Amino acid sequence: MLLVGGSVLFGIGGSTFGQLFAYTREFAEARHVDVTLFNSALRSVTSMTWIVGPPLGFLLFSRGSSLRLYLISAVLYTAAAAVSVLLLPETLSAGEQRTRISFGQTVRTLSAPVKAIILVIVLLLTVNSMYGINVALYVTETRGLPSTFAGLMIGLAAALEIPVMLLAGRFAERIGKQKIVFAAALCATAFFVAMPFADSPAALLALQLPNAIWTGVALSIPVVILQDALPNRAGIASALYSSAFKAGIFIGGLLVGTVAELVGFGKVFLVCAAFTAIAAAVLSLRRSTWSTH
After folding, report:
1. Average pLDDT of the segment spanning 227-245
2. Which tens digit of pLDDT belongs to each residue from 146-160?
3. 8 A C-beta contact, residue 280 and residue 272
4. Which of 69, 89, 132, 253 supports an S-S bond with 60, CB 3.0-4.6 Å?
5. Do 218 and 188 meet the contact criterion of CB atoms below 8 Å apart?
6. Measured between alpha carbons, how far is 78 from 99 in angstroms, rounded to an integer?
7. Domains defined for the chain, CATH in brackets
8. Residues 177, 36: contact at Cβ < 8 Å?
């Protein structure tokens, strides 16, 4: 019963994920705000929650207070729903209309560069999912460190992601969004290659800087690239991003257990490095289509 209820409710809630990006896009455009910077600022707020959330979650679970954790989560979700209904404004002015183009029609007409970006998103989010599942087990089982240290690592990475997202949003137009994502994929490859060789708490914490750099970019810039490629179809672009995001999470969840069972928790990071290297290669192959947009 819990599995069925959780699947249904998480599915309904997850459907709003992509539309949040569409709302952000329309909100910024309606107010003539830099879309990339505004989106990055919004994602940095999400990272702030990861500074508090994982350490608090691990602490509550370690003390056997899972019921309290679920109650706190329910209260926060209810508060978010109330804010959405009562405080968020409409993004379009009176008299404006959205362009209605079917999702299927959009998918059939996607260009090669857009398909490449979607593939990159899937690869990067697969890796992000694998890392999120594997890191706590690696820290506790392989390195023999307490579970609270895993929460500290995640919180530190989230804190470092905030300035990374803001800087990426600020300079994305000047440098080129695809080039920034390409650099992030290379950074991710280096990070995952180094992770199995980090044999001390200090080394693991130091590696959270490159971890924050690649995730800060991967979780903020690609959705703007898709929206730029599909003008006047922000909702569909965001739905494509959300679908690619969830596909990455699904694939990562399926792979990480099998890989860890076959080669161990440490070697999972090397598989992640292979995936991010493929993502960098895909972006490199599309370099002739790069622009500053």
Report:
1. 79
2. 888 888 898 899 889
3. no
4. 69
5. yes
6. 32
7. 2-289 (1.20.1250.20)
8. yes
Q: Which of 23-27, 97-101, 203-207 has the highest mean pLDDT?
A: 203-207
Q: Measured between alpha carbons, how far is residue 228 from residues 3, 25, 30, 167 in Å? A: 38, 10, 15, 19
pTM of the model: 0.75
Q: Per-residue confidence at 131, pLDDT binned at 50, 70, 90?
A: very high
Sign of the Cα pseudo-torsion (291, 246, 189, 44, in order):
positive
H helix intervals, 63-176: 66-86, 103-108, 112-137, 147-175
Query: How far apart are alpha carbons 244 and 260 in whole angstroms?
Result: 24
Residue 249 in tokens: 């999470």
Q: What pLDDT digit, counting tens, does each position of 90-111 carry?
A: 755 444 455 555 556 566 667 7
Place of tokens 């006047």: 232
Kindly indicate the confidence band of residue 292, based on its pLDDT and cuts at 50, 70 and 90: very low
With tokens 């994305």, the residue in question is 172
Residue linked to tokens 């508090």:
52
Alpha helices in the chain (DSSP H): 2-30, 35-62, 66-86, 103-108, 112-137, 147-175, 177-194, 201-206, 208-218, 221-229, 234-263, 265-285
